[in-house]
Amino acid sequence: MASFAQWREGARPRTLPNAIAPVIAGTGAAAWLGAAVWWKALLALVVALALIIGVNYANDYSDGIRGTDDDRTGPVRLVGSKLASPRAVLTAAIISLSIGALAGLALALVSAPWLLAVGAACIAGAWLYTGGSKPYGYAGFGEIAVFVFFGLVAVLGTQYTQALRVDWVGGALAVGVGALSSAVLVANNLRDIATDKPAGKITLAVRLGDARTRALFALLLTLAGLITLALMRATPWCAAGLIATPLALRALAPVRSGQGGPALIPVLRDTGLTMLVWSAIEAAALAWA
């Protein structure tokens, strides 16, 4: 039986910035429009955290029963390591996704009922990433999905539920967060190229190969930097987002130097921290402008 610490590790806490950052950014975008609503922001945060924990457990379950995690260099996987039964991990995924669905239902009903369709698409995307007969995560579309769901949808959805409209500032923040969030998955899949390919998991990293995947990671970090400069059109205070640059460079260093395997695990942490710090600074700048 898995311990509490192992269940916590199975939830992949290093990915939580992917859920927290877009809510912070979207709330900052709503504040820019003079329409931030703290309790709606908290509801959005519950949705985002529940969905990312749910998708992590769902991935653990789906990859585990397929045998993809039998030879793994990354963080512990509960099913693949036989620390927990597939049924227990699937139950954890369903509970997490259900919590996200209930919080999303409440948020949609007090904002715009049509958002229920968006929420349903998010839950379907969470499950079909590695679940189902043809998971899109096994076909190289994972990074695109992360960009859409944890970038565009999460940031603009958070802004819309509070301000009931979106603008170019929210769009810019959504692209920046989406780029950094995708970079986390790029680093993860770069680390796993050697094990994913034999297991039949043809991620974007497997398709691109080692060298081009490293170049893509650097490109995504650069895109977030360019978004910072674009946001200065809204207020010069957004230049403060460049404070996150040292974190980005720390994340980039092992990738540029050609390191692989376990040496790339800190890259996920540092990229997530970059995204979190960048989002918080930009949101504060927009709220105070």
From TrEMBL:
Sorted alphabetically, the Gene Ontology cellular component annotations on this record are:
plasma membrane
Give the EC class as a word. Answer: transferase
Cell membrane: present as a keyword of the record? yes
Q: Which GO terms describe its biological process?
A: menaquinone biosynthetic process; vitamin K biosynthetic process
Which reactions is this enzyme annotated as catalysing? an all-trans-polyprenyl diphosphate + 1,4-dihydroxy-2-naphthoate + H(+) = a 2-demethylmenaquinol + CO2 + diphosphate
Topology class, membrane: Multi-pass membrane protein
Name a GO molecular-function annotation: 1,4-dihydroxy-2-naphthoate polyprenyltransferase activity
Q: Which domain of life is it from?
A: Bacteria
| Chief subcellular location | membrane
Q: Which biological pathway?
A: Quinol/quinone metabolism; menaquinone biosynthesis; menaquinol from 1,4-dihydroxy-2-naphthoate: step 1/2
Q: What HAMAP family does its record include?
A: MenA_1 (MF_01937)
Tell me, what does this protein do in biology? Conversion of 1,4-dihydroxy-2-naphthoate (DHNA) to demethylmenaquinone (DMK).
The protein depicted here goes by the name: 1,4-dihydroxy-2-naphthoate octaprenyltransferase
Tell me which species this is from. Mycolicibacter arupensis
